[in-house]
Amino acid sequence: MAATEHSQKIKQDSQQYLITALLQLLKTKDFNDITVTQVVKRAGVSRMAFYRNFESLDDVLIAYIEPKINASFENIINRIPQDQKLNALGSFFEEIADTLKMAVNRHYESIIQDIFNKNMTKFYDQTMNWSQFSPMQRKYWVKFMSAGVYAIWREWLISGQNETINDIHVLLADFQISTLKALENETTK
Asked: For the whole model, what pTM was predicted?
């Protein structure tokens, strides 16, 4: 049993070293210009250690970013009252502003967007009543809203947050309500 615990500790340490090394390299390099060799050299681990833990550099970033985003969404979905969820989502975007800006600048934004989209699907599945909509309507509305919410927050963060956060919340709420009403009208035809 002790050997298993020791092996797990070594694996966790290797993962953390690799994550830290990649994050350090991203401070000065584009994601696309970083190699596994550079990461393992900086981390002080072997290539074998890298491939025991990850399949790609994308996986290293996912291991770092996904738990943070998932935890924020878990909190929003399960612990925030319904009428405060949009505000909580806005706070989440403010918290990850620097991470998102770095992802845009270093060309790995698609990783964050993928994780965000998965969480938005969970968010809408758990906070919306889908009984009057078809599975197809639900699927595409969620994709549409997720992409739209992400695009609005991204633009707001990247362009310097010139509008108030309340203005952004109102805009998003208006879009959500209008698109749902349009979908409801389509369903009743």
From this structure: 0.86
